[in-house]
Amino acid sequence: MAAHWAGRRLSLLSLILTKPGQHVPLCCVYSPRWKSSGPSSLQDRQREIMARGLPKQKPIAGVGQVVVVASGKGGVGKSTTAVNLALGLMAIDPSKRVGLLDADIHGPSVPKLMNLKGNPELTETNRMIPLTNYGLPCMSMGFLVDEEAPIVWRGLMVMSALEKLLRQVEWGSLDYLVVDMPPGTGDVQLSISQNVPVAGAVIVSTPQDIALLDARRGAEMFKKVHVPVLGLVQNMSVFQCPNCQHQTHIFGSGGARQLADTLGVHFLGDIPLHLNIREMSDRGQPVVISSPDSPEAEAYRKLAAAVLLRIQEVTV
Fold first, then answer.
1. Looking at the DSSP assignment, which residues form a beta bridge with residue 69?
2. Helix, strand or coil for residue 104?
3. Most buried one in 71, 169, 274, 311, CB count within 10 A?
């Protein structure tokens, strides 16, 4: 049985790592020195060359709106927020079909958070069928490698894997695809933003100053690549003692709200620092499903409602 699964993983990995049609990212476009009659002519030439290097955006087959969940740095609860946001979208409108894509190639978290194990089946056309739990179809690099195995890949292999996760998954028909992005502002963020029509980005941060610095960089990056910033989420906003109910702002107070005002973007809401969120996440039972009547689950549903409202505003 072990040999069977090992062989299956190898075949799936070989499928993912086959060389896709390459696109040249904006950051790698070579701009030669043009002889021109003046500054305006030179700028026109540069704009023309850079435009040629940009890949054509192509929708993901069967997917309506793509919402990316991002953060400037790791450790701010982005993946937990992405999972509960996707489930929250389903909870507030069960008629909508939602999917979840884990785009963090090096550090996939969705398998653990969604309590999913195993390898995706393949269709007759070699498209991967997402694994599903709680009614939410999911795809992750974590389904294709051993749980403990490090993914030690350079950029080209990561981009090849990302292309397959974007284009070779049989999602069926989805209204919304929530994408859990890796932290930072690197190749994956740029590639998704330039290759896929993204409805908007949700930026997750704690109120702590050091996290807000990176959240700002993330928001500015999406503006540069013309992806609407739906707003900022303030995660771990306040801790309430389960015994005396005293509230403590461990990471500071109101930092993400202030940053949203500074950047001129929407503030989408607060998510508390709560033991139940951590415990249920570690068990693969997100609070929107396991504790639907809890205040923390309600916070995620309010976030989902705010995201839906912003999508309607930016896509009108």
1. 180, 202
2. coil
3. 71
Instruction: With 0.85 as the threshold, say if the pTM is over it.
Output: no
d(CA 153, CA 176): 29
CB 307 within 8 A of CB 203: no
Tens-place pLDDT, residues 157-192: 888 889 999 999 999 999 999 999 998 878 888 889
pLDDT band at 59 (very low <50, low <70, confident <90, very high): very high
Kindly give the residue spans of alpha helices, DSSP state H, lying in the chain: 2-16, 39-53, 78-92, 110-113, 155-167, 187-195, 209-224, 255-263, 275-282, 287-290, 295-314
**Type of residue at 276:** N
Q: Residue 74: its pLDDT value, please?
A: 82
Q: Which of 187, 221, 176 is nearest to 203 (CA)?
A: 221
- First-last CA distance in the chain: 52
Which two tokens mark 211?
């996290």
Kind of pairing between the strands at 229-240 and 200-205? parallel
